């Protein structure tokens, strides 16, 4: 016919799949001894080499299982390393994460900071809890004139002081798994607005 026809074709270019090493974990307990189940989330790899960072476990510190289980008998911070070898490659890709196992007998420790001390009356004071290993909190704001609002069991409470003065705030913390208590005190200073 002597005519040229245009032909359209769709060209799809796909990015090459990239091998990835990774894992997540779950602990039977936050405290030693704890059994940790590792869930391998690696992609496009064929072999695995685990280092649990646990020098106490001897030859049990290493594993080539895909998703291994490890017993941590002692408290501490453990750096867990997974070396995964991709298909068709001799080099390994590495993923690490830090695992913390707490001491069974680590007592609760109370602590807090006053975000806006030296406020003018009436002033609402904000408390930020810095306690560790605690699950139960009992606050006394040292302000008996506030009646039912003088106490709180919130983690990070606030309290409004209507009169100038110094108020001794007491935080007592506990842990539902232990009998130990921790105590911390700090003084709130409420100022009088200067006369105009």
UniProtKB/TrEMBL annotation:
Signal peptide: none annotated. SMART domains: PKD (SM00089). Residues 47-84, 107-175 form the PKD domain. InterPro entries: Ig-like_fold, PKD/Chitinase_dom, PKD_dom, PKD_dom_sf. SUPFAM superfamilies: PKD domain. PROSITE patterns: PKD (PS50093). Pfam families: PKD_4. This is PKD domain-containing protein. The lineage of its organism: unclassified sequences, metagenomes, ecological metagenomes.
């Amino acid at each position: 016919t002597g005519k040229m026809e245009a032909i359209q074709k769709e060209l799809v270019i796909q990015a090459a799949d990239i091998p990835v090493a990774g894992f997540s974990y779950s602990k039977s307990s936050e405290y030693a001894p704890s059994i940790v189940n590792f869930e391998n989330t690696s992609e496009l790899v064929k072999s695995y080499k685990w280092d649990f960072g646990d020098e106490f476990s001897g030859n049990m510190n290493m594993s080539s299982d895909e998703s291994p289980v490890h017993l941590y008998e002692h408290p501490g911070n453990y750096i867990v390393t997974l070396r995964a070898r991709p298909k068709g490659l001799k080099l390994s890709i590495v993923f690490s994460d830090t695992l913390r196992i707490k001491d069974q007998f680590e007592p609760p420790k109370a602590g807090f900071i006053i975000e806006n001390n030296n406020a003018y009356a009436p002033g609402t004071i904000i408390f930020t809890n810095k306690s560790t290993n605690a699950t139960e909190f009992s606050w006394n704001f040292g302000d008996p004139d506030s009646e039912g609002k003088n106490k709180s069991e919130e983690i990070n409470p606030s309290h409004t002081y209507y009169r100038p003065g110094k108020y001794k705030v007491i935080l007592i913390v506990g842990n539902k798994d232990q009998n130990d208590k921790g105590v911390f005190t700090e003084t709130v200073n409420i100022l009088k607005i200067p006369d105009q």
